[in-house]
Amino acid sequence: MIELIATAESVEQAQELIAVGVDTIYIGEDQFGLRLPSSFSCEEIKSITEYAHKQKRQVCIAVNALFHNDRIEKVVPYLELLQDVGVDSITVGDPGVIGLIQKYKIKIPYIYDAHTLVTSSRQINFWAKRGATSSVLAREITFEELKAIGSEVSIPVELLVYGATCIHHSKRPLVANYFQFTGEVESSMEGLFISEPKKPDTHYSIYEDVNGTHVFATNDINLLPYLKDLMEVSVKRWKLDGIFTRGEQFVEIASLFVQAKHAIVEGRWTESFMYELNERLAALHPKERSLDPGFFIKDPNDVK
Prior knowledge:
The protein is of the alpha/beta class and 304 residues long. An eight-stranded parallel barrel has the order 1-2-3-4-5-6-7-13, surrounded by five helices. The chain has a four-stranded antiparallel sheet with strand order 8-11-10-9, with no helix packed on it. Helix 1 (11-20) runs parallel beside helix 2 (42-54), helix 1 packs parallel to helix 10 (247-265) and helix 10 (247-265) runs antiparallel to helix 11 (271-284). Helix content is 37%, strand content 22%.
């Protein structure tokens, strides 16, 4: 079964995503989860979870930050709150959190999400033996590598099929530090980016939150033309990330992937339909951002 997972930026957008057919809403609070479009309170998480369950959908909570000692002490109370709310799963990347889940007998299923580290079936199967019910794959994996991973893993794997790729993360608030050093007034964190001196077309978007500074690749990922290929290698958990695609545009893009999912499952997927959906996606995607398949179509030998 194909599962479509999508981030949400508000309670209202979560409801809209469920209405267009998204299976799982991915949200969280930014002191526990990385690179979220918005930070949600426990009350908001409860509201979304109750609504999702009424519609027979699921909610996954991001608990995939890397925790220092001062913040990991807050994890267990947060997990216990999520357990009381009845969320369906959490993503976890810090082994310390996995240890706490086991020690305090937290009953929420966890999905292993160590970001760029998750590149082999052996690592995924290692965590499957330690309770992981699924794993999020790194975004720098080629299709040839996916073939091997899909055939060897013992639990389902998740792949980003639409959205931005983080290429650098510093725990330091680099942007805030810059403005403080220069004495300039910080107007907004939105729309900030850096470019390489000799490559003016590069557009490395910057996002800063309580977890530090995150720098994203120039091109956002779009694997809509390759969804049938993912099915054939048993990668059936598809993630949509709306950190830079906001509002109704993201909901409409999610609906395109829902249509693609149904067409593939029902045997109606054709090249012409794929091109139609892809053209509509390109029209909805933010004009200041570009799209490509990321590492998906690269030769593994060319990846350095």
